């Protein structure tokens, strides 16, 4: 399932408005059980698929097409419940799977789309195919934008900060180029390429006039939609929202990437609209510079604790990237 | 040598004013070379020593005493060059080693004390014992306070900060208890127990009236001398210095531990008098709180880079400790 989730990454973000799904079909190998041969997905991979740009074909359709007759008796791993609703754009995956000859389907997580929501599983089971719901963390993580939209009606939000060891994003005079090195900045461009939209505050837009595009070879066309949090007018090519809650009404945005500044970071954090922190930290001290986050209105330290869970850390040149996630036990 | 450096830690800080040295004597094992048996320290450890409280006996004396006759033909690993100067408090270690019957001495680093400074090595060589100078990083690290005093006339300085992810040491209203958890605070007490003196700023002293003692079972008596950076009067039990450079005149302090606040941190950093950063970081965001370091007078980011080298990281409960060292390539 982790391999299927990794395949799904290839569909992100161009699968929008559809979820980026991954699918792998594994042939059964000859495994001998106590009372004779037991079907077991230990054979070769006979099909792989991921949601294609624009949302079609779906991952399951691509993997089944690739497998052809070799799907007979095989096992499908798919990160999301196959869709149950027919569309003018293509067949329902639950139909395709039901007619495939597969013996077993392992599903990463349910699709909360009311047109599917369990009906995909039922449909496949009725065709005599064994279905297992894995409730896989890697599948859920790979679908976090889609699931957040379906369950909370808003995009999955990443807040990115590029900091000194003492938490500053600029000198007192505003100089911020560069705190982090080229490896960390390239990683930020990769994260931009995975987002549907990027947002900055009005102050950052006026001060820096940032391009916010993706400057990685081959990924230039992945540059996301540009949003700005401001009550004022914005230049052509930018879409303004006047408060964080307005992200709830944005169509087709599964992944929102927030790049600053301190007022914008604070506004989204106060509204509890941040799911993930990307902290790029350089081994420097600034002292008396510009803090990364404006006032959050905390009246006690207790309220600051238990909100963030460490997820991952990696070295990027001399900088360190730390990823924290909003504590999954907090109410959504 | 790393094992001898770890032994030396047992002498810290009570060996003061002497360096905390570690020594291990290893018997030669029967190793066969191309042209017959070759002496090689592959046998058992026959003696171990570390500088005792008050500075005597020295590590070599303790290890030789323990080894007795088994020192004959053996190899001594010692973190610092054995002393060459006789004292009313005990014999010179170079004399003891010369008469020991050891076949070989491996020395971590030279002693810059002008009464030894190479004379210890010469004396031992003249006794027909092979001497190797290892220039060991672990030996030098374990002697950093002593070496800093001898070479720069000041203590080795550690600056400790307990921070949120966004680099704050307190809420805007001053609340700072607690940012880090019990594991990190216990680690700080252990670091206090390894220091000869702790320093805070006058503001921290007035605001928090900190005890700055060691609250670890069995280590209560290790509570270090208490210093305060202030131009004003100080309570009994505290020693005042009016500017960072005054640490150069402090007798018997090899390791100084600075605990805050932001003005004091900035004063020592501006004076380039910090050798090591201990950053305890809690997984919380504060936003609009009190920054850890006041203005450093930087006019450009270039001056902030290449000053700190990552040394170590460890998890302490939900907090992370990161240790950085002043870039060893910078002029002292």
TrEMBL record, chains A, B:
Domain CMP/dCMP-type deaminase positions: 1-132
Gene Ontology terms, MF aspect: 5-amino-6-(5-phosphoribosylamino)uracil reductase activity; diaminohydroxyphosphoribosylaminopyrimidine deaminase activity; metal ion binding
Signal peptide stretch: none
EC number of the protein: 3.5.4.26, 1.1.1.193
Cofactor, how bound (note): Binds 1 zinc ion.
Family the entry assigns: In the C-terminal section; belongs to the HTP reductase family. In the N-terminal section; belongs to the cytidine and deoxycytidylate deaminase family.
Catalytic activity: 5-amino-6-(5-phospho-D-ribitylamino)uracil + NADP(+) = 5-amino-6-(5-phospho-D-ribosylamino)uracil + NADPH + H(+); 2,5-diamino-6-hydroxy-4-(5-phosphoribosylamino)-pyrimidine + H2O + H(+) = 5-amino-6-(5-phospho-D-ribosylamino)uracil + NH4(+)
Catalytic residues identified in the record: 60
Name this polypeptide is given: Riboflavin biosynthesis protein RibD
Binding residues for Zn(2+): 58, 83, 93
Cofactor: Zn(2+)
GO biological process: riboflavin biosynthetic process
Record keywords, A-Z: Hydrolase, Metal-binding, Multifunctional enzyme, NADP, Oxidoreductase, Riboflavin biosynthesis, Zinc
Pathway participation: Cofactor biosynthesis; riboflavin biosynthesis; 5-amino-6-(D-ribitylamino)uracil from GTP: step 2/4; Cofactor biosynthesis; riboflavin biosynthesis; 5-amino-6-(D-ribitylamino)uracil from GTP: step 3/4
Amino acids binding NADP(+): 162, 178, 204, 208, 261-267
Function of the molecule: Converts 2,5-diamino-6-(ribosylamino)-4(3h)-pyrimidinone 5'-phosphate into 5-amino-6-(ribosylamino)-2,4(1h,3h)-pyrimidinedione 5'-phosphate.
Species this protein is from: Altericroceibacterium spongiae
Residues the record lists as binding substrate: 176, 192, 212, 215, 259
């Amino acid at each position: 399932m982790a391999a299927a989730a990794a395949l799904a990454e290839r569909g992100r973000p161009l699968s929008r408005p559809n979820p980026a799904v991954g699918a792998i079909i594994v042939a059964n190998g000859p495994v001998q059980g106590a009372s004779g041969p037991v079907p077991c997905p230990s054979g070769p991979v006979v099909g792989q698929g991921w949601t294609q740009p624009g949302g079609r074909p779906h991952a399951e359709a691509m993997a089944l097409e690739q497998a052809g007759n070799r799907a007979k008796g095989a096992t499908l791993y798919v990160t999301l419940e196959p869709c149950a609703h027919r569309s003018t754009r293509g067949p329902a995956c639950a139909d395709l799977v039901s007619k495939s000859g597969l013996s077993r389907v392992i599903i990463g997580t349910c699709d909360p789309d009311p047109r599917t929501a369990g009906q995909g599983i039922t449909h496949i089971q009725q065709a005599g195919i064994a279905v297992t719901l894995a409730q896989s963390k890697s599948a859920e993580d790979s679908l976090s934008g889609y699931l957040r939209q379906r369950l909370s009606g808003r995009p999955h939000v990443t807040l990115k900060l590029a900091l000194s060891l003492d938490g500053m994003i600029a000198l007192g005079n505003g100089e911020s180029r560069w705190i982090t090195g080229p490896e960390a900045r390239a990683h930020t461009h990769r994260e931009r390429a995975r987002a549907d939209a990027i947002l900055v505050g009005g102050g950052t837009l006026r001060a820096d006039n940032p391009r916010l595009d993706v400057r990685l070879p081959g990924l230039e066309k992945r540059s996301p939609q540009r949003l700005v949090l401001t009550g004022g007018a914005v230049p052509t090519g930018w879409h303004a929202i006047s408060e964080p809650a307005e992200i709830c009404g944005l169509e087709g945005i599964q992944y929102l990437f927030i790049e600053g500044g301190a007022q914008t970071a604070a506004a989204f954090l106060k509204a509890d609209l941040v799911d993930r922190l990307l902290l790029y930290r350089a081994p420097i001290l600034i002292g008396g510079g510009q803090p990364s986050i404006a006032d959050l209105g905390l009246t006690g330290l207790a309220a600051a604790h238990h909100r963030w869970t460490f997820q991952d850390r990696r070295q990027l040149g001399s900088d360190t990237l730390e990823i924290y996630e909003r504590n999954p036990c907090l109410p959504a």
